[in-house]
Amino acid sequence: MSKKVVAMILAGGKGSRLEALTKKNAKPAVTFGAKYRIIDFPLSNCANSHITTVGVLTQYESVYLDQYIGNGEKWGLNGVRSLTTTLAPRQTDEGLSWYKGTADAIYANIDFMDSTNPDYILILSGDHIYSTSFDEMVAEHIQNDSDCTIGVYEVPWKEASRFGILVADEKNRIVEFHEKPAHPTSNLASMGIYLFKYSVLREALIKDAKKKDSSHDFGKDVIPALLNGGARLFAYKYRGYWKDVGTIASLHEANMDLLDGTKETNLKEIFNGHTIYTEDQPCHPQYIGSKAVVEDSLIDQGTVIHGEVKHSVVSRLVTIDKDAKIDHCVVMGNVKIHDGVVASYAVIAPDVEIKKGTKIIGDPEHIKLYAGEEK
Amino acid sequence: MGNKVLGLLNLYDSPTLGELTKKRTTGSTSFLGRYAIMDFALSNFTNSSIDEINILVKDNYRSVAKHIGSLKTWVNNTKIGRQNILMNERGIRDPKFNSDLNAIRENDWVYYESDADYIIIAPAHIITIIDYNEVLKFHKEKGADITLVYTKIKNGTKAFLSSNVCEVKDNVVTFLAPNKGEKDDISVSMRTYVISRDAFLRIIRHKDYRDALSIRMLMETIVANQSLKVYGYEHKGYVRCIDSFEHFIEYSFELLDYKVATQLFDQGAPIYTRTHSAPPTNYGEKAVCKNCYLANGGHIEGSVKNSIVSRYVEIGPKAKVDHSILLTKAIIGEGVRVEYAVVDKYAKIYKDVIGTKDEPVYVAQGKVIK
């Protein structure tokens, strides 16, 4: 029998920099790439790594997200030996307590983790766009007899001070960790992906929970404490496409990255030979009208296009009427775009209707967010 | 719905579509890019809250089983709901007697085991949206033994040639016989029937009907003898009978007029189908696409007009596709022209394939043209 890896996905954050998109919706449930929701990526990564037990920690606007995750069926994570469940904050003997930080959220679910009898716990973030299998990371972790392996990503040096930065030796053993250093000595940024020996994680979480001055965060508290205590921490260098879509601009950019016309990347490369699984709702195939123009775009089923769509990502059940022109846009599900609308460099929130002749004009430096007219 | 209903999808009752149905049933043939033809009949069951669905399969079992997949696509409750695929195993050894009625007799355990009050039998190849709650209400109000669903058409010399003409007086079916294509304005049987489970079990074993091989023959006999009360329920709206390769093409292309398509898609009754986790369709920088239906998973780099494109189809740069139907995973090479063609699954086309409106070309599954 191979060792058992249980994944815990942190999906409780609000993502307030996504503005109106997360006003009534958790960030992991935000639409991405015409057909997907952000959390489809970490969940599909689990499926594609043959991980069969997944806990998804939800908190902010959890009703829709809980419903979306269900029993994990959308990602095939409901097979005979599988278990997928959402883990929202709960009321206990000691009262009701919200998740106070990433480490606190995992700590609050030690009973769940115990019940799944894991050898390793893989902690993932619910709001990253990347497509991978964790097999290689797990293999390295075992080979290194690592207590905790941290996924790292080489970021441009000038951006390194925005991240948690790790310094590793030639064997990838982590020797230093600095949260957002002013003068970084490395460009290896933590991706917020941690693979722990469960025994080590369990002990570290219990210790951290007792600390009064801790913010109960993996990056700020748990990892530095382990490093200071002499634990074997290793870096796993992730080389594929990876993006944290924390802002409207980065969400827009990551969507555009899927298109053929973006020279550096495209959908095929980003999906990295894997399938990303998602909800597939009944709707008719996409219909492209006789006067329509569709170039360099990704279009999902159920759409009806009579206008012009260039370099854009268009979700399910969107209608684009004649004489409407859309370029460099991300159009989320169930949007009605009427005659003569012009939208450029914009993100259109789901379920809105854009009236005849409306102009929504952004530019590459200022991506517009349209979430309906102000009431 | 109140009463429990068993839906019986009768794949025996569908005419074949020539080469296209060499390796598949008409019901499991791809339609409009993302559906199988039988999805419409199955979704009518689902949308009428029928949770026990039986599919009577004559041949090409593999193709049907592949499309049906697990039980969950068409049943509402996955514990209470049931979905069986029924074959006439004896009939395979003795094809002359491999008929729908014999397959039902062979699988009669289903009708004993079921606790359904009524059985609704429908064919796979008739594309329509119908609410069986209404038909059942009519059936009960009339106190019918059998209710036959029919529709009125204005092109009887061309359409429904594979079906029966019926005459209905005061809601009672008085005449039922094959459509010989002599008249345009006729009422035709949609080969859809409602019957109580008790009556159904009595009839399939009754000595008077022992000679009837098929349900169609049985119905003709019953109507001719007036031995049971057969009522006619008129169904109005969009109805197409896909009973030939030519009709398959004609009715597919007809839906490219989106106004026609809204008769199928805007009825508040979703069409369910097995899904495939395909990514959204990717249009390249030089893609040209006009008047088409496309399923997900495709990569369009060339031009495609007036066509229907299934999942995972690739149209290479500078390729020109017009008036064609491309099935799953077909590949159209760079610079190739394809006109008036039906390109079956997995075919790869690296040389021009040009048909005409009257003589469309069929490219077989997996064929490589270079």
Give your account of this protein's structure.
The complex is a heterodimer of chains A (375) and B (370). Chain A is α/β, with parallel strands linked by helices. Chain A contains 9 helices and 28 strands. Chain A has 2 domains: 5-248, Spore Coat Polysaccharide Biosynthesis Protein SpsA, Chain A; 281-370, UDP N-Acetylglucosamine Acyltransferase, domain 1 (3 Solenoid), CATH 2.160.10.10. Helices cover 21% and strands 29% of the residues of chain A. Chain A is globular. The model of chain A has no long low-confidence stretch (mean pLDDT 94). With 370 residues, chain B is of the alpha/beta class. Chain B folds into 2 domains: 5-265, Spore Coat Polysaccharide Biosynthesis Protein SpsA, Chain A, CATH 3.90.550.10; 282-369, Hexapeptide repeat proteins (UDP N-Acetylglucosamine Acyltransferase, domain 1, 3 Solenoid), CATH 2.160.10.10. Chain B has helices at 38-47, 61-68, 89-93, 100-106, 109-113, 132-142, 197-205, 215-225, 245-254, 258-265; strands at residues 5-10, 30-31, 35-36, 52-57, 82-87, 118-123, 126-127, 146-153, 164-169, 172-178, 186-196, 230-234, 240-241, 281-283, 288-290, 292-294, 299-300, 303-305, 308-309, 314-315, 320-322, 325-326, 331-332, 337-339, 341-343, 348-349, 353-354, 361-363, 368-369. The longest helix of chain B has 11 residues, at 132-142. In chain B, 51% of the residues are buried. The model of chain B has no long low-confidence stretch (mean pLDDT 93). Chain A binds chain B through residues 33-35, 259-261, 267, 271, 275-278, 280, 282-292, 294-301, 304, 313, and chain B through 32-34, 258, 261, 264-265, 270-273, 275-277, 279-287, 289-296. Strand 16 (286-288) of chain A pairs antiparallel with strand 16 (292-294) of chain B.
